[in-house]
Specification:
The chain is mainly alpha-helical. It has 7 helices and 2 strands, in the order E-E-H-H-H-H-H-H-H. A two-stranded antiparallel sheet has the order 1-2. The termini are far apart.
Length: 158
């Protein structure tokens, strides 16, 4: 008698043992038919991709872009990786172009910034700090005393 329970009402001996059958509800889908995933498939349109790229261009964090687009951050990164990367690269290129055009137009501040960051030049007559260590390392030999090495290094600093 598997699947049966006996319920008792406690009123009389005749009603004391009434069989109750426990059954599970029938499945709405037959067992031999495969079901699709319960998750909805998200289709990324060209308009969505353009929006993602534009948000990435202005520096919006991925989590915020995902929330705006109605996606998870993981889905956004997985499905729109090219747009996220391109947005940052395009923004950097546009800024560099605007800076170049401003410098070419005569803006002295833009010229100086370009020289320092893009052309690698420094202000004044002091040598580049990255080069000082290289030259000092070349002129200091292992057989020198610590005092001689320190004097040589000070000479390099000027």
């Amino acid at each position: 008698m598997a699947g049966r329970k006996w319920a008792t009402t406690g009123t009389s001996a005749k009603d004391a043992a009434v069989p109750v059958v426990l059954t599970t509800p029938a499945s709405p889908h037959p067992a031999n038919i495969s079901r699709a995933s319960p998750r909805a498939t998200i289709e990324i349109t060209d308009a969505m991709r353009a929006d993602v790229r534009r948000f990435a261009e202005i520096g919006t964090p991925y989590a915020v872009i995902a929330r705006i687009m109605g996606l998870s951050a993981t889905t956004l990164k997985r499905r729109c990786r090219a747009e996220l990367d391109a947005g940052v690269e395009i923004a950097n290129a546009r800024i560099a172009l605007a800076l170049f055009e401003t410098a070419m137009g005569g803006n002295t501040t833009a010229m100086l910034w370009w020289e320092k960051t893009r052309a690698g030049r420094r202000e004044g007559s002091a040598p580049d700090p990255r080069e000082i260590g290289k030259r000092a390392a070349e002129t200091i030999t292992p057989d020198m005393s610590a005092r001689e090495a320190a004097e040589r290094y000070r000479e390099e600093l000027g």
